Amino acid sequence: MRRRWRRPVYFLVALLVACAALTHCAAFGAAPMGDRLERARRSPQWRDGRFQNPQGSWADVAASYLRLFARSEPDTRPSAPIDTVSPVFAMPPASGLAVTWFGHSSAFVEIDGVNVLIDPLWSARASPIGWLGPSRWFPPPAKLDALPADAVVISHDHYDHLDYGSIAVLKGTRARFIVPLGVGAHLEHWGIPRERILELDWWESARIGTIDVVATPARHASGRGPSKSNRTLWASFAFIGSKHRVWYSGDTGFHDDLARIGERFGPFDLTLIESGQYDANWPDAHLGPELAVEAHRRVRGGALLPVHWGALQLAPHPWTEPIERVLVAAACHDIEVLTPRPGERLEPTTHPSMKRWWPNAAWRPASKAPVIGTKNGNGDERIALPPCRG
């Protein structure tokens, strides 16, 4: 059993190391240096030479590798093409707030006259190597450089959120980039002018047009190479307009600051919360469906748009399981869940009618495959969910 997972892991690491040694492998980006590194070191989140989660993070790494490489789960990818929509942005939303989800965590938020593009992933793979790594299940529903983005927000530098190919296209637009501390090193390395990059620590904000973009805490990790992980920060983001408020979770496990985010910046008309690509062996890296719903409640969200699912496989659960479990958990607390097809433009405050677009496929309920985060990075102290009210 041990050899079954060691061989592919060693092969992947060898490929990454070989690519890192080549000068043309630009997708790895660049490490923070100089004044950028000094600013990172002054952050309250920086300890012992890297960024760290205040609550720690627990994972059973050996069990994770065994599951990924030694066992195959059914229905982990679609068996038929996914139906997408080509969005049109000719007119601003009548309500002042619209959202378009492109699959995974990529989304376009139109809020009070400002357009924000979130974690664009337009490349065929979430990888630094064009022929290796998780591949998309469908082409992006819109042309990237045609999106009228005023700002591009990047939650952290993992490949499924900071995509080199997408940044290369967006370099030719007028958009400004809002990123957590240190991530600007990658962008500048790729040719984005320093004056177009705004780097934020948690609780810091930037003004874009008529809205404030606030970097809020998250519980995750960072890194793009085989070494020197967590040299850049990860974050969630609040978008505060004159009439509307939106919160994006980024990648995160459950953490104590969720309620504080809700107190300081909520209530939110819309939340975009990562709900997929989870596993019980690393419950502090991703929320999972049930804790995604609880996070929505803690930040005082209105409508919930589940993200981080539906476009590629990064975890061994069935591909439709995240949305099915979110709907079950949300029903317990009478929460409105938005389930747009990729590319479908919605105005959340109008309470649009949602239609099921994904197939009926096998999935595991929470009782069969629970994903419960830890309180302090210890596997024996788990977060308790409130009882279902439904």
From TrEMBL:
Pfam families in alphabetical order: Lactamase_B_2
Signal peptide stretch: 1-26
UniProt keyword annotations, A-Z: Signal
Keyword Oxidoreductase: no
Lineage, top ranks: Bacteria, Pseudomonadati, Myxococcota, Myxococcia, Myxococcales
Domain Metallo-beta-lactamase: 115-309
Protein's name according to its UniProt entry: MBL fold metallo-hydrolase
Transmembrane portions of the chain: none
The keyword Cytoplasm is assigned to this record: no
InterPro entries: Metallo-B-lactamas, RibonucZ/Hydroxyglut_hydro
